[in-house]
Amino acid sequence: MNNPRPSFPVWKRIADIVLSSAALIVLSPLLLLIAAVIKIVSSGPAFLLQERVGRYGKTFGLWKFRTMHVGADAAPHRDYLEVLITRDIPMIKLDTVDDLRVFPFGKFLRRTCIDELPQLLNVLRGEMSLVGPRPCLPYEAAQYDTWQMQRFEAMPGLTGLWQVSGKNKTTFSQMIQLDIAYLEHVSPLVDLKILLKTIPAIVADQAADLAKADNVRVV
């Protein structure tokens, strides 16, 4: 007999609703300003709705600020992701080095992770949590080994243990291991620690990415 799927913690859902609602209210002027700038600097919609894989493998539409030119080819990302998975090398972001698909303001949004802020709507809707594994793309999930599928037992998050544990310094397998470790130790205190570490981690990661990009240009 299969074990029943664990229910989503009540405390976690309450925190998601309260904090995401407050963040959306406080950040609404900034979000509107960013959307307006995107419309000015790049033709096309300000927001992008992208299919992602959530809890128990259920897909949903994830909201992001658009950072690429309209019609950008997804093949480079798909090919690069396959390299990261099969070779298990440090997960340096593809756009650390100049990516012509990304317009200049989009690079700023990506490096600061501001492009992810619209996902507060996904949190409020119950499709994501503030803390949890990052929701992956369907073509990424299709390459997972059986043991790696455990990460789908957790609600995907806006930030997570991987983001504050080295992120781009880790390999794909290490990322999955961190996601599973979070699932096994989830608690209000763990979530609070991850949330408090997120902004410092973003600042450190982006500084490291810029340094690596400079080295690549010099070479």
Task: Describe the protein's architecture and organization.
- The chain has 219 residues and is mainly alpha-helical.
- The chain has one domain.
- It is built from 7 helices and 4 strands, in the order H-E-E-H-H-H-E-H-E-H-H.
- The protein has helices spanning 10-41, 75-87, 104-112, 120-124, 138-141, 172-185, 188-218, and strands at 47-53, 59-65, 129-131, 157-159.
- The strands form 2 sheets. A two-stranded antiparallel sheet has the order 1-2. It has a two-stranded parallel sheet with strand order 3-4.
- Helix 5 links the parallel strand 3 (129-131) and strand 4.
- It is globular, with a radius of gyration of 17 Å.
- It starts with 9 loop residues before the first helix and ends with a helix.
- The relative contact order is 0.15.
Question: Could you list some keywords that capture this structure?
Answer:
219 residues; mainly alpha; two-stranded parallel ribbon; 9% strand; globular
- Please bin the fraction of helical residues: 40-55%
**Spans where pLDDT lies below 50 across 5 or more residues:** none
Count of all domains? 1
Q: How many extended strands?
A: 4
- Average of the residue pLDDT scores: 89
Describe the secondary structure blueprint for this structure.
Elements: H1 10-41, E1 47-53, E2 59-65, H2 75-87, H3 104-112, H4 120-124, E3 129-131, H5 138-141, E4 157-159, H6 172-185, H7 188-218
Parallel strand pairs: 3-4
Antiparallel strand pairs: 1-2
